[in-house]
């Protein structure tokens, strides 16, 4: 059966107008939604970044005024040294600090939480503690308990840390860890850019005496040195080998570090392991006595302690 089509009302059919699609509208809606989410994320990132920057802005704007000029830090280990010997060390540090308007910080093994790391890591935490307790100091000088100040007339800020003096003293383009490290000290480093001063002995870098300029870089350096990953490596010489590691593998540290002649801040009483002390040198250290017994350092240092006391009495 066939059905007739309804008659047209006109002989000219209306033009074809396609039905409006909903797709463009959906796309516009989604685009607006994505744009709003993106703007919200950017705003969140901006707020977080600005907040972080504001948290760090205060330390960056604080310039140490040099009061005190130097904090002399020493870790006292009663398991390695006799009580009488450690009292002599304290006397030596206090006399030197009082002469030049410095401050002292004496730390003991156990004063800080090391999270299971060897006690020798107290060196790093004590230096960091000095920056916290004396935020206006110019320098932190860590001097191991195995050493004594022998020339009280010398100030470390003049004897070592003056930029022009460092330009003359620092050893450039030489292996960081002797004798054949492929990583060498920077050849173009200027004294004004130096933040850390170290020495070497015949075995490598020495952490028994080092000077650190107060500032944000110093805090970065100490935090890096004390990082859990390096303490977990169980280096044979703990913090000393960790120091050698970060100096060689972190250009940010190497680019601010100067190595100077050992006798400037780290002369040894004997020349077996390093440069031997000469009259007039700033300090003398006894790097091997603590490994013998608790009385060995007291016996070995006796003549030097007497000479040091005479020097202070006449200065």
Automatic annotation (TrEMBL):
GO-annotated molecular function: alpha-1,6-mannosyltransferase activity
Segments traversing the membrane: 31-49
Protein name in the entry: Glycosyltransferase family 34 protein
Family: Belongs to the glycosyltransferase 34 family.
Lineage: Eukaryota, Fungi, Dikarya, Ascomycota, Pezizomycotina
Biological process per Gene Ontology, one example term: protein N-linked glycosylation
Keyword vocabulary terms for this entry: Glycosyltransferase, Membrane, Transferase, Transmembrane, Transmembrane helix
A single GO cellular-component term on record: mannan polymerase complex
Pfam families per UniProt: Glyco_transf_34
Region (Disordered): 1-21
Position of the signal peptide: none
UniProt key word Transmembrane helix: yes
Source organism (scientific name): Parathielavia appendiculata
């Amino acid at each position: 059966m066939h059905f007739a089509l309804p008659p047209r009302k006109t002989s000219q059919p209306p033009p074809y107008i396609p039905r409006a699609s909903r797709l463009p509208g959906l796309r516009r809606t989604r685009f607006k939604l994505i744009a709003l989410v993106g703007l919200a994320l950017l705003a969140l990132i901006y707020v977080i970044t600005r907040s972080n920057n504001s948290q760090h802005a205060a330390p960056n704007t604080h310039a140490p005024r040099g009061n005190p000029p130097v904090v002399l830090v020493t870790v006292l280990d009663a398991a390695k040294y006799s009580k009488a010997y450690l009292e002599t060390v304290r006397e030596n540090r206090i006399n030197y600090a009082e002469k030049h308007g410095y401050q002292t910080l004496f730390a003991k093994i156990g004063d800080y939480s090391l999270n299971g790391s060897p006690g020798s890591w107290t060196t790093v935490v004590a230096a960091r503690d000095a920056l916290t307790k004396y935020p206006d100091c110019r320098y932190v000088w860590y001097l191991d308990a195995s050493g004594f100040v022998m020339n009280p007339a010398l100030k470390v800020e003049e004897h070592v840390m003056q930029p022009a003096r460092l330009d003359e003293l620092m050893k450039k383009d030489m292996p960081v860890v002797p004798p054949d490290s492929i990583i060498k000290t920077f050849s173009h480093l200027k004294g004004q850019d130096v933040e850390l001063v170290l020495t070497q002995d015949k075995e490598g870098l020495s952490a028994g005496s080092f000077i650190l300029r107060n500032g944000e870089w110093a805090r970065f350096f100490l935090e890096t040195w004390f990082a859990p990953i390096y303490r977990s490596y169980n280096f044979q010489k703990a913090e000393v080998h960790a120091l050698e590691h970060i100096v060689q593998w972190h250009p940010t540290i190497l680019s601010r570090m100067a190595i100077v002649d050992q006798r400037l801040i780290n002369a040894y009483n004997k020349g077996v392991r390093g440069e031997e002390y000469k009259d007039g040198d700033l300090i003398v250290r006894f790097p091997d006595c603590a490994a013998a017994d608790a009385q060995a350092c007291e016996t070995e240092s006796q003549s030097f302690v007497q000479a040091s006391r005479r020097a202070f009495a006449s200065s």
